[in-house]
């Protein structure tokens, strides 16, 4: 689930939330966290230079003190009929309307303050902060209700969440943050067309920043030291401490006479920050604090648009969104399979391979580019070249998990092709004697890499890896190793006792090892979970 925005506090700058998409909308599992909103109070009453009091003004003040918000509102409206620019009355009208739940009237009063020639800069800033906090309230309400929906799966909760996010956009149309979640909810509700509108509205607000970042050679996760080498010395550098012991860096540059803010996050114990977001030319209607608040960049809308365009049989449009993602975050591999498929469908695979090769040259120490290149070669049917790249990675990083998994799958795939060929020959010629030994060598190599990946804490008890090893040892009639895998799978029962995947695997394992009673017991347990 999603986290919430805090409200503004003097001397501080807002830190926004991050929406991750291994998800994109194809995965809706997110992490829940608590709500920390505190709505702004009546700081407006501390402002100076208010007009001289009238009986109605005095009545409005007293009514606010007595919490008689309807009377306070009526008295303020009476004052404003005779004095359109009475700033104190406008603040009272706004605060009373807030307390009565009339967000539209509250916002309208604050907007009048922001454009009034009678308001001081301090008063205009206070009005802007209050609008911001009203935005926070609606945004947080949207997140809270969405989190509830994740738990309840009740459509009404999703609809309510979308309503809060829509109100947030009405309050602060300059802020793009509610739109990715709004689009996600709309997709969840089956409203693809409105979701596309939300995602494209987000892009309209963010596109220029992405273009500036791309033109300057900036990408997400780029080390801050590289940003400083690329962009030069910022006109302003600040940093904040994070609760986890890390730091948040804010580097402000002048690009075309407008602010371009680059935000980098450094985790506890790390020696450098990595780019997490940017802002270009924030709207002049925002306060100075709002213009320079910390923001993170989410790629979720772009990924969703790529998936939607592809589903709607528009490969060219899908490819364009994929390309924007790849430029902004080259090491994000979530769309790599789709992008490779699109390159193939559009007849541009050579272009794709050339592009990733150039990234490898520019990032020689980053193995993720080589991993992507290997997977693209494999998808293009260039298995031997793919294997060579994976082996190159292991020569540099012997424990690289992606390379180990890639090679394990590669050799098992080769074995499968040879096995199918033997079956086809036997099917065509009853006298043909199958030679299964032709692919046993490939299976042994696959098992070797799967066994190596099991040494990683992350994959030690991985069900998919154990299932692959069981399959290999079963086909090869390797009873010793087969028995070991069965024991390892059985040892996971306390952890996966009611896990459908584990139950399905164990049912098959017991059938293949002729332990029929155990297979029946697992089958009964699995069916009882339905």
Radius of gyration: 30 Å
Number of strands: 4
Alpha carbon gap, first and last residue = 26 Å
Shape: elongated
Q: How helical, in percent, are the residues?
A: 55-70%
What would you say this structure looks like, in words?
There is one protein chain. The protein has 530 residues and is mainly alpha-helical. 61% of the residues lie in helices and 6% in strands. Strands 1-2-3-4 form a 4-stranded antiparallel sheet. The model is unreliable at 5-51 (pLDDT under 50).
Chain-wise SSE layout:
Elements: H1 55-65, H2 69-82, H3 87-99, H4 103-115, H5 121-152, H6 155-171, H7 178-188, H8 192-215, H9 224-231, E1 236-241, E2 247-255, E3 258-266, E4 274-280, H10 288-291, H11 300-311, H12 315-328, H13 336-345, H14 349-362, H15 367-379, H16 383-396, H17 401-428, H18 437-453, H19 463-475, H20 479-491, H21 493-496, H22 500-512, H23 516-528
Antiparallel strand pairs: 1-2, 2-3, 3-4
Helix pairs in contact: 1-2, 1-3, 2-3, 3-4, 4-5, 5-6, 6-7, 7-8, 8-11, 11-12, 12-13, 13-15, 14-15, 15-16, 15-17, 16-17, 17-18, 18-19, 19-20, 19-22, 22-23
């Amino acid at each position: 689930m999603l986290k919430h925005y805090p409200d503004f506090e003097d001397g501080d700058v807002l830190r926004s939330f991050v929406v991750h998409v291994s998800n994109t909308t194809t995965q809706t599992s997110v992490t829940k966290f608590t709500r920390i909103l505190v709505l702004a109070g009546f700081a407006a009453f501390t402002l100076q230079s208010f007009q001289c009091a009238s009986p109605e003004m005095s009545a409005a003040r007293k009514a606010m003190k007595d919490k008689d918000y309807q009377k306070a509102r009526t008295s303020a409206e009476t004052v404003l009929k005779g004095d359109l620019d009475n700033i104190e009355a406008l603040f009272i009208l706004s605060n009373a309307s807030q307390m009565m739940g009339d967000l539209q009237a509250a916002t309208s009063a604050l907007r009048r303050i922001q454009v009034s020639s009678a308001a001081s800069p301090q008063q205009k800033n206070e009005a802007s902060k209050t609008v911001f906090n009203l935005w926070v309230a609606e945004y947080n309400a949207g997140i809270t209700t969405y989190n509830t929906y994740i738990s309840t799966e009740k459509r009404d909760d999703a609809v309510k969440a979308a309503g809060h996010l829509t109100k947030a956009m009405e309050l602060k149309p300059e802020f793009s943050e509610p739109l990715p979640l709004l689009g996600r909810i709309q997709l969840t509700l089956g409203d693809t067309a409105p979701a596309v509108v939300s995602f494209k509205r987000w892009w309209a607000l963010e596109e220029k920043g992405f273009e500036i970042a791309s033109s300057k050679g900036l990408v997400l996760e780029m080390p801050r030291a590289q940003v400083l080498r690329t962009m030069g010395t910022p006109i302003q550098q600040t940093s904040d401490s994070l609760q986890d012991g890390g730091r948040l860096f804010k580097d402000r540059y002048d690009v075309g006479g407008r602010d371009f803010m680059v935000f980098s996050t450094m985790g506890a114990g790390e020696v450098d920050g990595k780019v997490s977001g940017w802002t270009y030319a924030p709207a002049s209607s925002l306060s100075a604090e709002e213009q320079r608040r910390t923001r993170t960049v989410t790629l979720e809308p772009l990924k969703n648009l790529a998936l939607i365009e592809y589903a709607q049989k528009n490969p060219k449009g899908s490819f364009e969104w994929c390309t924007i993602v790849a430029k902004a975050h080259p090491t994000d591999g979530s769309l790599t399979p789709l992008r490779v498929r699109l390159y193939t469908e559009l007849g541009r695979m050579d272009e794709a391979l050339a592009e990733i090769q150039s990234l490898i040259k520019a990032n020689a120490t980053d193995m993720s580019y080589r991993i992507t290149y290997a997977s693209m070669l494999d998808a293009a049917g260039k298995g031997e070249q793919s294997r060579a790249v994976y082996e190159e990675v292991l020569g540099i990083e012997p424990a690289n998990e992606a390379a180990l998994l890639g090679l394990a799958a590669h050799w098992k795939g080769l074995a499968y092709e040879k096995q199918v060929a033997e079956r086809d020959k036997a099917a065509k010629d009853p006298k043909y004697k199958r030679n299964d030994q032709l692919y046993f060598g490939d299976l042994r190599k696959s098992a070797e890499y799967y066994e190596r990946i099991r040494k990683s804490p992350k994959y030690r008890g991985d069900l998919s890896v154990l299932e692959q090893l069981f399959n290999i040892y079963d086909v090869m009639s390797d009873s010793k190793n087969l028995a070991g895998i069965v024991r390892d799978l059985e040892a996971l029962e306390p952890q996966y006792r009611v896990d459908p995947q584990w139950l399905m695997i164990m049912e098959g394992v017991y059938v293949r090892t002729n332990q029929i009673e155990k297979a029946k017991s697992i089958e009964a347990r699995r069916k009882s979970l339905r």
